[in-house]
Amino acid sequence: MSVDQVKAIMRAKDAISSAKVRGTQAVIGFDGFVDEISEAVDKRTSPDTYKRIETIAEFGERIGKAAGLSTNIELVPKVIKLGGNGPIMANALAALGLDVTYIGALGRPLHPVFRELALKARVISIAQPGHTDALEFSDGTIMLGKLESIKNINWESLVTAIPLTEMIDLFSRTELIATVNWTMIPYMTEIWQHLIDDVFSVINYDEPPMIFFDLSDPEKRSPDEIAEALRTIQRFNGPCRATLGLNRKEATQVAEALGLRLSYDPANAPLDEITKAIAENMDIYGIVVHPLDQAACVLDGVFCIADGPYTAHPRLTTGAGDNFNAGFCLGQVLNLYPKDCLILGAATSGFYVRYEYSPSLSELLDFLDLWANNVGREFA
């Protein structure tokens, strides 16, 4: 058992136990999806029982063998729930006690999957939601998105739903802003540019708010588009304290788009090296990179790394990264030490993948105790 890890977990717990969370204002946007989460069947043993395809590699092998032949793969729906990086992150922040306003593609009228979020937060819908078929495996998720309605998320739909004067007032009162899922929103870079030029340029903050960005797997976008998005994120640093959140795959994609020179190719570079290299190049307030079992960040020039409460048997992985982002941002908005932010992100995600929902603040505190008592061991 790592004594230092236990101390870090308990310090993070003590920090949020005494912090004033309720009343903290957050504005999150702008996507929205209906997630249909399924498992792929390997062998069906009876009308009611089956063995699932356990890993993405096994699923890929099954598909590869079908080349030139065709095949049939049965999907078993497990749950239909609210989806999209923004709604999942907003739901997690609201569960933790923040006063959340969510702006996004939630349907008109509101789609039933977002009713739970609407009970916890103020919601403003600007378009119909997309649809995601999410195939769950023990080592990750394959998300198949249907995005036609997401094309309607643009600056015009935003200012139609929220007139510019109201938008300026809303953003002037918030302490945390998160704008996520750049990859799937074709006009997100344009939205960011308008936010900088038309909103943040006219607000005089006593203390710059935190603003969090998540590209959300930009593999399908060109390196030039990714580079432009990263340059636009840099423009937020000053009016706000800008943080870019990346999973390990996204860190590789960003490093490649930035042309970073590392001791290994970006996909195999050590976590500390790639995190520091992206932070040095981007020169913004924060960079956080979170693989499955660890996370690292540079916040305001301070580098930290922390292990997470990894489990080889997650019950739900779709949304795990969004829950990490929620916990991490909670630490940021409370001005906690960078390692505390990593611990809170990892704990929020660790709770979510085990129990299939986002924790309340009290549940997060209990989970931190559970984690501290099981450091170095896998636990349910």
Question: Your description of this structure?
Answer:
This protein is an alpha/beta fold and 380 residues long. It has one domain: UDP-N-acetylmuramoyl-L-alanine:D-glutamate ligase, CATH 3.40.1190.20. Helices cover 40% and strands 23% of the residues. The strands form 2 sheets. It has a 9-stranded mixed β-sheet, with helices on both faces. Strands 2, 3, 4, 7 and 8 form a 5-stranded mixed β-sheet that branches. Helix 1 runs antiparallel to helix 13, helix 7 runs parallel beside helix 8 and helix 8 packs across helix 9. It is globular, with a radius of gyration of 20 Å.
Low-confidence stretches: none
Gyration radius, in Å: 20 Å
Helix run count: 13
The averaged pLDDT comes out at: 95
CATH hierarchy class name: Alpha Beta
The CATH topology turns out to be UDP-N-acetylmuramoyl-L-alanine:D-glutamate ligase
Helical content stands at 25-40%
Number of domains: 1
Number of strands: 14
